[in-house]
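Re: that chain you flagged

S.,

Sorry for the slow reply, it's been a week of failed gels. I finally had a moment to sit down with the sequence you sent. For the record, here it is as I used it:
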Amino acid sequence: MFKKITVKLSEFGLKRFPGYFKPLEEIIRLANIGILFEVYVGLMIFISLLGFLLTFLFVLFGSIIFLKLPIIISLIGSLIIGLSVFFIVLTIFHSYPYRVVSNRKSSIEANLPFAINHMAAIAASGVPPLTMFRLVSEVEEYGKLADEMKTILRNATAFGMDLITAIKQVAERTPSEQFRELL
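Prediction finished late last night. Pasting the structure tokens below so you have them in one place:
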């Protein structure tokens, strides 16, 4: 049931508000957060609506029972506060992938000069490229850059891609232009 609701909400959001949601598609792919774009949009709308509904009911009954306000004022206040919560939650969900992309890019670019030196030293010793990527991926201090190297390794070893294709795929998905050029 939950799955059907999120799918319907996703379809509704993408059909009615494509200008708001469509830019997220590429960002979610770059953020590498492990969720499909359509599922993320459905979840985004569902949780925003849930926040609206719970806030609306809580404020409505709280203002009538505890504050003894007239029903019309309680309804208007509940609607305003509920809509505010709806848009705040929607904005948080919308901005989250952008923040993840920004953090990934910063981590990759901060560690890139050190990793390049490391890769050059390994390559100069005559080690095969796949081994070079494995050695660099094992250095946790490289942060998200090590994760990118692990993805190259996974694609080449577990998924059976040739090294060039594995590198190209990571280059297409990395948020760092500098790392993309290096690959």
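What I noticed first: The longest helix spans residues 71-124.

Talk soon,
D.
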